Amino acid sequence: MKTRICATPSKPIVPYLAYSREDKVKPGESLNTAWVGALLKASAFDEIWTVDLHSAEDKKLFPLALESLSPATVFGECFGKLGLTDVCFVSPDQGAIRRCEAVKSAAGISGGDIVYFEKHRTAAGIVHHNLIGKVERCAVIVDDILDTGETLVSASAKLLSAGALELYICVTHGLFSGQRWRELWSLPVKRIFCTETVPPGVTIEDERITTLSVAPVLRERLARIESSVAATS
């Protein structure tokens, strides 16, 4: 997976920080998050901006300052316009709960639980269990990455079994690797929303996939810097 770096007048921006999921010590695997950080530091950067960093562990492993910009306002505006009712926001594991809370708040949707699963990886694949919270008729799954789709397929199947009738998926980085993620349409998932932080490796033309721009998030952050500089000058 290529890491795309965009230059700004003051900070380098890495919209999708590749290898950020490799943030745990596992037998026979390297901590590639730290390795990427070392390469960027060797390139004379002293701080990096990225969008929706995978985990807090990434910041601990990075050898330079790492700021994560939340796309919650972008997704919140989108879901606020859909006018969904009887809706809950769902985290496919405990690590994405804060993302659910941020998107729900930005959408201005009151009521409904933040629902989450406990998740384990086995030799056979992802296993979701211990669903916490009340599942409503409409469920919005919020996560940072859609790669192969294995996690989202498993979570969607469990939500249907728990009584959800209408599913939406909201992910920051849409990798769309392989074909497994296409099973989401048969579960049935109505729409998938992602941002343009990652150019798709293959052309995916499907009206059910909506790509949103994170430019407003970057503009807002740059405006705050300019305002701070003006206030101190």
Helices, strands, pairings?
Elements: E1 6-7, E2 12-14, H1 32-42, E3 47-51, H2 56-61, E4 65-69, H3 72-82, E5 87-91, H4 97-107, E6 114-122, E7 125-132, E8 138-146, H5 150-161, E9 166-174, E10 189-195, E11 209-212, H6 215-232
What is the CA–CA distance across the termini?
42 Å
* Strand-pairing-aware structural class: alpha/beta
How many individual domains? 2
Kindly report the oligomeric state of this protein: single chain
**Fraction of residues in helix:** 25-40%
Low-confidence segments, ≥5 residues, pLDDT <50? none
Rg result = 18 Å
Strand and helix order? EEHEHEHEHEEEHEEEH
Number of helices: 6
Q: What is the molecular shape?
A: globular
CATH class of the largest domain: Alpha Beta
How many strand units? Answer: 11
Strand order of the largest sheet: 7-6-5-8-9-10-11
List keywords for this structure.
Rossmann fold; seven-stranded mixed beta sheet; 6 helices; alpha/beta; four-stranded mixed beta sheet; 233 residues
Structure description:
With 233 residues, this protein is α/β, with parallel strands linked by helices. The protein has two domains: 6-69, Rossmann fold (3-Layer(aba) Sandwich); 72-215, Rossmann fold (3-Layer(aba) Sandwich), CATH 3.40.50.2020. It contains six helices and eleven strands. The protein has helices at 32-42, 56-61, 72-82, 97-107, 150-161, 215-232, and strands at residues 6-7, 12-14, 47-51, 65-69, 87-91, 114-122, 125-132, 138-146, 166-174, 189-195, 209-212. Strands 7-6-5-8-9-10-11 form a seven-stranded mixed beta sheet. Helix 3 packs across helix 4. The model has no long low-confidence stretch (mean pLDDT 86).
